[in-house]
Structures are given as C-alpha cells and as structure tokens.
Amino acid sequence: MLTHMGQKANIKLLTTAKQVAPEQLEGFDFCTFIPMTFGNIISYNADPHIPAKYVSCEDWWNQTVLVHEKQHMTRGDIVCSAANQDGGAHVDTKLKPKTIAMKLAFWLKTNNQGEATGVEDNHYPLLRQFANEILTSPELVALTV
After folding, report:
1. Per-residue CA distances from 107 to 4, 84, 112, 118 (Å)
2. What is the rounded CA–CA span in Å between residue 38 and residue 124?
C-alpha cells in the first residue's frame, strides 16, 4: 500500500527489537530481540528507558526478531509464514523449517499440579507487537490525517 502511495521509501517505522549483527547470532538456538514481560501471559513491551528507534520499511521488514531451532526469522518471515502456512490465508500440510521453528514451544508453563507443558505458537504475540509498532509509528499515522 505504501508503494502505491509513493511513501514506502520515505516512511520510518518504529522498531522495538534490538539491532543485532548477523555474526552475533552464530550458535544461538533461541533468542528473541523484542523485550518481553512474563506473567499470566507472555507479552512484548518496549523498554521505557530505551529511546524509540525508527527504521526504513525495508529494514523493519527484514530485521531479525527471533532465532529458534537455528532458524533466523525476520518480521517478513513470521508474517508470511503465519499468512501462507499457518491459517492466516490457508494452512499447508507440509510446513517449512521457519514455520515449524516459530510454532515450536520454547517456554514452559506449569499448572497448579506442577505439570509442565510447552507454550507453542509464540509468533502470535510477536504479530501483535508488529501491529503495535506499525500503529504507533508517527510518520505512518500522519498519512491518515
């Protein structure tokens, strides 16, 4: 849509993810770069002590935000996997490695009896955070006024 409006190259989007050089990711099996809060739910929250950072649309889309099962995932990977393989538009019977990795549990929750189970589908809170970043990007919001 921004391309059709002639704005894609001009707009800066909010990123709450930490910038990490690709060489720093070697050997990681799990890492998320968006600040998280744990409680009854896992939510992603910007650290109020870190100033807001804005990046180009292309950098925002291609920024690595999750590493799991040695799969490095950008916002684009997560959005497209959710849409094209995980029920956003349709469901594939044979999932790609990045889709499998984003759906696998990497946190455990414990019930009142002390039984632990994996928390799967952690891409859903990430998708909500991506939406929050977009909806709170001042340059993008200014286009609607």
Report:
1. 40, 25, 17, 6
2. 15
Pairing mode, strands 53-56 and 116-119:
unpaired
Question: What pTM does this model have?
Answer: 0.77
Task: Output the DSSP codes for the chain.
Answer: -TTTTT-TTT-EEEE-SPP--GGGGTT-SEEE-S-EEESSSEEE---TTS--EEEEHHHHHH-EEEEETTEEEEHHHHHHHHHHTBSSS-B-SS--HHHHHHHS--EEEE-TTS-EEEE--THHHHHHHHHHHHHT-HHHHHTT-
**What are 3-35's pLDDT values in tens digits?**
888 888 889 999 988 877 777 777 666 666 676
Domain ranges of the chain: 12-142
How many other CB atoms are there within 10 angstroms of residue 145's CB atom? Answer: 4
20, 29 in Cβ contact below 8 A?
Answer: no
Q: Are 30 and 106 within 8 A, CB to CB?
A: yes
